[in-house]
Amino acid sequence: MVETIESTIEAIRAAFRGVPRGEITLHEAEVIDSYGTAKERAAARRRDTEERWEEIPDKQIEECSNALSHLDPQSWRYYLPRYMEWTLVHHTTSRSITVDHTIYALLLGGDASINDYLRARYRQLTPEQSRAVSRFLQIMARADEHADAGAAGEALQKYWHKLSVAGQVEG
């Protein structure tokens, strides 16, 4: 079955509905990326007032392209669906590196310790959430002209294709 953007967004919304935010917020993660001070982190944290990931404005996702790399696991799980949704909607029109950084957050690399860290993040997802991630990556793997389709295909091959019959991701 070929996934559509619309059905994949619906699957993401259903799978991640009600996920609570963790300790680190979106703008705080961007400050962490630039080695900001504790005072700068606190100020950035105050900018993030949403109560649900669905409320985060597109502009904030586009501007916070590095955040996914600096979130605690629970916050990563909270923000990931919004990044995937934004990427699906905007990958053909945006020039933001957020498109590719969303894919890279789902890609195992060559370093074993980093891969262990990433797998720990991935394993916290429910089977339904893992299937939504796989659907997202399937679409991005076909988006050659607008995203790093090769990285999306590699992410599927290295990890996300391992969905079992029960939908559990192995790792």
What report would you give on this structure?
It is a single chain. By secondary structure, this protein is mainly α. It has one domain. The chain contains 9 helices and no strands. Helix 1 packs antiparallel against helix 5 (73-90) and helix 2 runs antiparallel to helix 3 (38-47).
Give a brief outline of the structure:
The chain contains nine helices and no strands.
Structural class: mainly alpha
Secondary-structure element sequence?
Answer: HHHHHHHHH
Largest sheet: none
State the helical fraction. Answer: 55-70%
Low-confidence stretches: 164-171
Descriptors for this entry?
0% strand; disordered C terminus; 171 residues; mainly alpha; single chain
Q: How are the elements arranged and paired?
A:
Elements: H1 5-16, H2 26-33, H3 38-47, H4 58-63, H5 73-90, H6 98-104, H7 112-123, H8 127-140, H9 149-158
Helix pairs in contact: 1-5, 1-8, 2-3, 5-6, 8-9
